Amino acid sequence: MNAAEITMTPTMTPPDEPQLVTAASLVIGTGRTRRFVGREHGAGISYFYVDNEPGQGPDLHWHPYTETWFVIEGTARITIGDRQLIATVGDTATVPTGVWHGFKNAGDGRLRILCIHASDVIIQTWADEPNAAGATTR
């Protein structure tokens, strides 16, 4: 974008009072994984912060948007379609729209990985659903 395309004037006063979303408010169930749904907080993206033990991780699923992973700690075996990648601390991988994918903790310690969804809601279809063409919005 060049300067001629910018049509807004920045301000120091946000339109709404900024809100902090605490880690505790995003925890799913009794585990250590957290889910942030952007639409609920005025954000254009959503994410999962996953904290898994060895062997754990989501099975095959797909989204109608891209997903990008950033490995914070540990080793992930990421499946993207019929390919597999081994990702370690600091690595980033992206799955294209509509491609089956999943990941597992392939290391001996914990896997901490940020899964960024290019959507303000999380929409995913699991391979093991009776009708794998149907989507689940979370």
UniProtKB/TrEMBL annotation:
Residues 50-116 form the Cupin type-2 domain. Pfam families: Cupin_2. Gene3D superfamilies: Jelly Rolls. It comes from the Bacteria. InterPro entries: Cupin_2, QDO-like, RmlC-like_jellyroll, RmlC_Cupin_sf. PANTHER family: PUTATIVE (AFU_ORTHOLOGUE AFUA_8G07350)-RELATED (PTHR36440:SF1). This is Cupin type-2 domain-containing protein. It comes from Agromyces humatus.
